[in-house]
């Protein structure tokens, strides 16, 4: 089993080739940092500087993939270079290996190498100067600092900037992701709101149209058919007006239309009159004062949907609508006759109860609906206090 090394970066290969192409001509022309008369290098053959040059150049392809190995082998090659005539290119390549080991190495290596090279720089200047008692020996420490500590410190600075840029990029991506999630959530909430508005505004009129058109088709009585067609026309016109209002709400953001009026509890009397025109025996009892706009809209829609359900599902009998303000809440109760097993007079999707419950929940209130003592009862409790929930609901656009 063989261990495959990662493929070196093309720029690292170019650095290695460039180092050889620069070092060999300097050797051919006899350009070296040390002179042959130096006792430390008298034993070395003339071609000896080429060995550390070739080894250091061979370490360059490892500067990204195996920076620690490259630095270790390069350090051995540099040590060998010090007992030969030497090559300036070998020193330059070694500084790049130190820089790359800090920049591309592990976090632990990036922390240790600057400290180690800094310590060697200090020792390289202080120890020889103390032993030889010659201030010029401090130049040894300067040389170590230039060859080792300076590239290590540069790599540390560049790595910190790179890591900071990467962290900023990740934060920007997370911010964009959160913004997209918020946008998707806002779209979902807005769609649910518009679905409730569309259902509450149009279902009442369409249910009346379906019921009276069935009567007009099933009864062979010209007057009854005429009355039914009149009711159908009235509900068609009213439904068309509600649809236009909804379209106006959708176009408000572009400034095409003026904001449409929001339904209020003052319109309950008109709503009840319309339900009576559709054949319901409705009685309204209202005892309330001034209420916040979100609560007012929710209460109007709950009464409207309850009357629509009574028109479609209730057995013949009176429908009672009661609104009462007490203990900081607006309490709504709508009751109608109920006979289990009756067939609805108009089709329904069952989303009306869901919409009423959502409206009450958004305001922090409660909702319940079901048979009770032989009558179908709808109860909703809406808090009247200007709570944070209501403010946020209004800000999301739950009221037109």
Task: Explain this structure.
The structure is a single chain. The protein is α+β, with helices and mostly antiparallel strands and 400 residues long. It is 62% helix and 10% strand. The protein folds into two domains: 10-175, no CATH class; 265-400, Histidine kinase-like ATPase, C-terminal domain (Heat Shock Protein 90, 2-Layer Sandwich). It contains eleven helices and five strands. α5 (107-132) packs antiparallel against α6 (138-218) and α8 runs parallel beside α9. The model is unreliable at 254-259 and 387-400 (pLDDT under 50).
Radius of gyration: 43 Å
Global outline: rod-shaped
* Count of all domains: 2
**Weakly predicted, low-confidence segments:** 254-259, 387-400
Strands of the largest sheet, in order across it?
Answer: 1-2-3-5-4
- What is the total tally of β strands? 5
- For the residues shown, what is the average pLDDT? 81
Cα end-to-end separation: 72 Å
Helix content: 55-70%
Strand % is 5-15%
Element-level helix/strand string = HHHHHHHHEHEEHEEH
Q: Structural class per helix/strand content?
A: alpha+beta
Q: Mind describing the biggest β-sheet?
A: 5 strands, mixed
Number of helices: 11
